[in-house]
Amino acid sequence: MTPGARVQAAIEILDQVIAAARANGAPADRLIGDWFRTRRFAGSKDRRAVRELAYRAIRACGEVPETGRAAMLRVAAEDREVAALFDGTGHSPATIVAGEPVAEAGLAPQWLVERFAASGVAAADAAALLDRAPLDIRVNTIKAASLALPEGGERSVAANGWRYPPETRIEQSAAYVQGAIEVQDTGSQLTCEVVAARAGETIMDLCAGAGGKTLALAAAMDNSGALVACDTDRTRLSRLAPRAERAGATGIETVLLDPGKELQALQRFAGAADAVLVDAPCSGTGTWRRNPEARWRLTEAQLGRYVATQSRLLDIAAQLVKPGGRLVFVTCSLLDEEGAKQAEGFLKRHPDWSAAMPDLPVGTPRGPGLRLSPWHDGTDGFFVARFERL
Predict the structure, then answer these.
(1) Which residues contact 382 (CB under 8 A, 6 or more apart)?
(2) Which of 32, 59, 208, 326 is deepest in the core (most CB within 10 A)?
(3) Which residue among the candidates 61, 192, 282, 332 is catalytic per the annotation?
(4) Is 332 a catalytic residue?
(5) pTM of this prediction?
C-alpha cells in the first residue's frame, strides 16, 4: 500500500468506528481486525501503519466526528506530512477542499469534560488518558517455579507485576503459553491486592467477567479455600474455565446470575464470605488509553444506569460478607459518581460498615478510597475502596 492508500484505509475504518460508536456496535480493535481479514493484500507494515493512523485520529477528536474523513482531517490539520497525502492520486484520499468539515480536537464530549472537572481531574492531567498504554503482566505465583520471563520488562509497583513496551508480543512467549504470566494492568493488580485474599478463606468475585481478577485472587489464595466467581454474562463467564486451567487455578466455582435476581442465586453464601470483590460495571473512563473510542459511546443516561447498578451490587455484596469481613469496591472510572460519591453513599446506607483506606504504594485519596490514574501512577484509571463489616 502507498502512504496515501494507508490514509484512505484509515478513513474507511474510521467511518465504521464512528457508526459503531453511535449504534453501540463493535469496538475499534475488532473492526480494524475485520477490515484487514477481507483485504489480504495488506502486509504487516501496512496493517500497523493503518492502525496507528486510525487510533491517532480517534485520540485527536473530542466530540464524535461527522465522518472518518473529518477525523483524519483533524490529524492532517496538525501534521503537514499527512495533509500532503490527500492528493487524490491512485488510492489516496481526495484533495482537501477549503471549508470542508474538520473534526474538533479535544479530550471528550463536552458533558464528560465537565464531569471530569467536577471530579477534580485537571484538563492537563486528563490528557494522559489518551496516551498509549504500556503492556503490564502479572506473574502467576501458582506456576512461578517454571517461570522464565520474556526479556525487555521491568518491575512495576504491583507485588507480582512487570511492565513491557506496548508493542511487546507477550502472548507468543513461552511463559504466557504455559500460564506462568497473565496480561493485567498494574492498577488492576493493585485493586486485587486490596482484597488481601488469603489461603483457606471464602472469597467472592461478584462481577467476575472473564475472570482476570478471579485468577489473581486464586494465586493469592494459593489454590486453598473457596473462590466463587459470579457474573450475569454467560459468554464472558464461560471464558474463565479455560483460563483457569491454563493458569493452574483450581477450586473456582462459577455462578451465573440473573440480572435483578442475583440474591436468589446467592442465598447460600449469605453472611459466609471473608471478602467480596465488587469490580462493578462502569463507564470505563479510566481505560481510554486502551479504548479511546469508548468516550464517544458513553451517554449521560448510560452513566446514570451504571451508578444505579453499582449501588445495587454493593448492597447485595454487603449481605454476603460475614461479621468482621471485608468488601472491596472497584471501578475503572475517574468520575466521582462511580467512585468517592458511590463509596460515601454505601457508608450512609450501611452504618454497620466502616471504610479502611487501601494500603497501596501509589494512589491519591479521594473520599473514602483511593484514585489510581495514568498521570500520577502510570496505571489505568481506577477508584478502589475497602469496607469492613463491624
Answers:
(1) 187, 188, 190, 191, 286, 330, 331, 332, 333, 371, 372
(2) 208
(3) 332
(4) yes
(5) 0.95
